[in-house]
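Let us work through a complete example step by step.
Step 1: write down the sequence.
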Amino acid sequence: MSLTKPVSTPSIAYRPLLAIAAAVALAHAALLHTLPGALPVAAPTVVQALNTRSIAAPPVPEAVPAPVPRLRKKRPAPPADAAPALPPPAAADPSPEPSPAPAPEPVPEPPVAAASAPEPVAPEPVAVASAPAPAASAPAVPLTAATVFVFPDPVRLLYELSGESKKMTYHARGDLLWQHDGQHYDATLSASLLFLGSRTRTSSGQITPQGLAPTRFADKWRGEKAAHFDQANHRATFSANTPDVALLGAAQDQLSVILQIAGILAAEPAKYPPGASLALQTIGPTSADIWQFTVEGPETIRLPSGTLDSLKLTRNPRKEYDQKVEVWLAPAMGYLPVRLKITNASGDFVDQQLRGVEKP
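Step 2: predict the structure and record it as tokens.
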């Protein structure tokens, strides 16, 4: 009896609690019946948030094309080096600088540059093909090698000078002093111009079996420039600091060359008929060239000193800015120059004609 008594007692005590629990259960059941109508209200709120995000998403693909124009600008960068050959394409490339800037993109870009390279490269062969044209020059001229010479006795020749410079004519006087002792020679050609001072060219050297061998040539006009001949080492150097040149056989300077030709013609005049030529390396105050004279033939000329029989030789220009040199040599005076005319490419000229002879 003791065992059942405690059971019955609590059942009576818990009855109020059971009633409360039943009431709560009924209340929950009633609430569950009302929830289905409230859920649709909360659901649209979530959908609206998702719809808002899906609307904002489209700008993301719009940002992707932004780098594309940059890639297009960078691709023409490599051909920019060839742009000078094609001025129009150079104007179409607005970004010559980006080529060195991008570090990660050079790997894909070279194939693109290679595809566009043929357009600027095409004109380059044209430029290369035209480049050799200016380098073309007259063929080498065989130099005159003489072994017999007859040089005139020392003398001073006096000249009357006339000329034109920049469309202005002028007159002056000059002289050629020729001296030698059979082993050493000195030559001086000078001209004096009123209000302009004087210009003097000098040549000095040795007389050898090959003719005149200059050791120094100087041109003095408002300053002096000189060429020095190292005959032993076959070199010529210049005071103007221009490059040295190699001396060829029987090389002369711009003054001794006329006297060397005089000695050649005086020794063997029949060897040089009209049409024959004499070619000698000629050293100036700053450079060297080959002067080739063609024998024009005998000519009687009237000079301030009188009428003389002469042999005319002409050195025609070989380059664009070469001078034309015409010289008249008098056989009766040991083929010394009795008239000398020099004409520049511009048309300016100087003409010196013999007016007298003096002993030195």
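Step 3: interpret the result. Residues 1-10, 31-52, 71-139 have pLDDT under 50 and may be disordered.
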